[in-house]
Amino acid sequence: MKKVFAKIISAGLILTMGLSMASCASKKSMTVKKGKLVMATNAYFPPYEYYDNSTIVGIDAEIAAAVAKKLDLELEIQDVEFDSIIAGVQSNKYDIGMAGMTVTEERKKAINFTDTYATGVQVVIVPENSEITDVDTLLNGDYKVGVQTGTTGDIYMSDDIGDDRVVRFSKGNDAVLALSTGKVDAVVIDNEPAKSFVASNEGLKILDTAYVEEQYAMCVNKDNTELLEKINTALKELTEDGTIPAIIEKYIPSNG
Ligand code: ARG
Question: What is the pTM assigned to this prediction?
Fold first, then answer.
């Protein structure tokens, strides 16, 4: 009798343990910090993310804030090296990466991308008096090209002209500075930051011929499909109600 009783108790115990483990698994938090949406970015990429005094502003910062609000979460932005964002999202250090980040098949192996919210173009910046007049001249010559480490500019350039001619910088504006001081012959970077860097550095211009066209999206941990779906729904609603178009228009006026 005693034995049977003990058995029933232990069976009951195992059942409760199993149940609570199952509920733990299903309750696995959607975000890293309770009630917060932690976003990793690299905030030297105007107009997507940049500092206004000590605040990070820009298209990505504002879209992320609008998404966080829809999800009833508080947005926390962390400024990190661009090439550490994907690893940080993979290891659940950050909930999302949002940094004018281009959707690529290679990156999709490591993380999931949300629906895209913007288009980017890789362009070439050269000194005004440069003999580099188009992308082909750049590729076929012996020129050194500055890029931001780990960006698509870096990846495509390294593929097309080889590592030896690519000079990597941790920030896009450092690459542009190196161009201004003649340390590199050209910089390959996204069009909107390029416009902003050219406007604030004298003697530089953007070549008319584009290098590659791309789509921007946020990235999310592959296991966090719940967050991915919620963000996609929020992005859809914010596009339909005009919020996202208005944010983009604010930073990239279509008539300007
Ligand atoms: N679109 C490019 C890429 O995904 C460059 C992005 C750089 N972003 C930044 N916030 N610094 O590789």
Answer: 0.89
Residue 185 in contact with ligand 1 by CB distance below 6 A: no
Closest ligand 1 atom to 120 CA? 1
Domains and CATH numbers, the chain: 36-117+217-251 (3.40.190.10), 120-214 (3.40.190.10)
**Whether 42 contacts 82, CB under 8 Å:** yes
From first to last of the 256 residues of the chain, give the pLDDT tens digit: 455 555 555 555 555 554 444 444 445 679 999 999 999 999 999 999 999 999 999 999 999 999 999 999 999 999 999 999 999 999 999 999 999 999 999 999 999 999 999 999 999 999 999 999 999 999 999 999 999 999 999 999 999 999 999 999 999 999 999 999 999 999 999 999 999 999 999 999 999 988 899 999 999 999 999 999 999 999 999 999 999 999 999 999 997 6
Q: Does ligand 1 come within 6 angstroms of the Cβ of 46?
A: no
CB-based contact 104:152 (threshold 8 Å)? yes
Does ligand 1 lie within 6 Å of residue 190's CB atom?
Answer: yes
Report how far ligand 1's centroid is from the alpha carbon of 48 (Å): 10
DSSP assignment letter at 99: S
Beta-strand runs (E) in 21-102: 36-41, 44-45, 49-52, 55-57, 74-79, 96-97
Which atom in ligand 1 lies closest to the alpha carbon of residue 49? 10
Question: Cβ(175)–Cβ(187) under 8 Å?
Answer: yes
State which ligand 1 atom lies nearest to the alpha carbon of 41: 10
CA atoms within 13 A on the CB side of 95: 26
